[in-house]
Amino acid sequence: MSERGRVGILISGRGSNMVSLVEAMRSGAIDADPVVVLSNVPAAEGLRRAEELGVATEVVDHKKVKPRRAHDAAVVETLQRYRVDLVCLAGYMRLLTPVMVDAFRHRMLNIHPSLLPAFPGLDAQRQALEYGVKVAGCTVHFVDEECDHGPIILQASVPVHDDDTESSLSRRILEQEHRIYPQAVSRFFAGVRLEGRRTHAAP
Q1: What confidence tens digit (pLDDT) does each residue in 133-174 have?
Q2: Pair type for strands 192-195 and 32-39
Q3: Which DSSP helix (H) or strand (E) runs through 194?
Q4: In terms of C-beta density within 10 A (0-12 exposed, 13-18 middle, 19 or more buried), how is residue 63 classed?
Q5: In the chain, where are the structural domains located?
Q6: Given 62, 71, 112, 141, which residue is catalytic?
Q7: Which of 8, 49, 73, 167 has the greatest number of beta carbons closer than 10 A?
Q8: pLDDT tens-digit profile of 5-14?
Q9: 112 annotated active-site
Q10: CA 137, CA 190: separation in Å to the nearest integer?
């Protein structure tokens, strides 16, 4: 790993978690630099925001590069060109193939808006409300072959109010996402030890 970490951030939409990560790196809260923001969607709002923050941007359009394994191979090639040490999925709405997972095993993080293993996949906040849970939250985890499944690094809980809607709960969870994702990335660069599914921060 380089003396100062190099981070690639993958997005598909507005990129709010990307912004929080970039700002944390720029402030010195994370001992790393954002070297590229990549999207599978050419019109993703987050690309414009990344450019405003002075971060290089790349697009690998999933509608033009098919099948899925070929798309992942093109993403891997791009990230390797930027010599990234860590890949952060920040609202990247793609199921990954082994091509991607193997290339960055134990070097790729994701954030999910539930307290995993509860409510993986899409619409986690809606799933939580429909199930009737009293506590929801978010999880930062390593990425493996299964959806929203890898070893957990950090979680944050959010109380579910009786009058919550999917929108109101999502907003409060997102506030916690912006808080713990930079903490998890900082912990990664400080050193995270894996024992099976359990992660341990460096002493």
Answers
A1: 999 999 999 999 999 999 999 999 999 999 999 999 999 999
A2: unpaired
A3: strand 192-195
A4: exposed
A5: 1-104, 111-203
A6: 112
A7: 8
A8: 999 999 999 9
A9: yes
A10: 24
Token duo for residue 86: 């860590």
Using CA atoms, how far apart are residues 95 and 10, in angstroms rounded to an integer? 13
Task: Evaluate whether the domain defined by 1-104 bears CATH number 2.60.40.4070.
Answer: no
Beta strand 32-39 with 57-59 is parallel
Encoding tokens for residue 46?
């987050």
For residues 6 and 142, what is the distance between their CA atoms, to the nearest angstrom?
Answer: 17
For residue 70, count CB atoms less than 10 angstroms from its CB and return exposed for 0-12, middle for 13-18, buried for 19 or more: middle
CATH number belonging to domain 111-203: 3.40.50.170
50 burial type by CB count under 10 A (0-12 exposed, 13-18 middle, 19+ buried):
buried
